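Notes from the 1:1 (GR / supervisor)

We went over the backlog. Supervisor wanted to see one worked example end to end before approving the batch request, so GR pasted a single chain during the call. The sequence is below; no edits were made to it. Supervisor asked that the structure be written out right there so they could see what the output format looks like.
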Amino acid sequence: MTDRKQSFAPDIRKCGYLKVGRSQLKALFSTNAEQQQLAKILLCVQTFAYFNEGQIYTSNGVYVCHAGEWISCYWEISLLTGIDRRLVKSRLKKLEVMGFLTVEHMSVYKRISLTNYEQRMLIVHNPSFGGSPKVTAEEVQGSLFQSASSLYSPSQMIGEA
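Structure output shown during the call:
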């Protein structure tokens, strides 16, 4: 859809970094197919979301894309992730219900916005562990992917001092 020069180069310093939660990575490598698909689609959106304002040219017109947004279609996400287009649609709905992103329908294309993209996650450090974040067993309940929901919810804090 967009002309982006993409190649896997040894000099990764020039292309920037993406902060991905460990729970999302665990879900990506889990044996649960649904968890893998959710993680793969979220990682795809995170990878291609704009980090500042830009314009997208489509056959339907020109759209302004803000930071944390990506204008795409189910077919493109399916090609990028290797997940069936119908599953992409249902997994995006589930990610939306879970609060990771929002999907706005624009004819064939969808404006996918990462929730709280611009806000920073708050982490309270436990001084008894050398400043490392303290995570309790209650906070890690549920699926691996559900425990990653604090990544985009700044109101939820990991650990308490």
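Supervisor's comment: Strands lie at 54-58, 61-65, 69-72, 101-106, 109-114.
Batch request approved.
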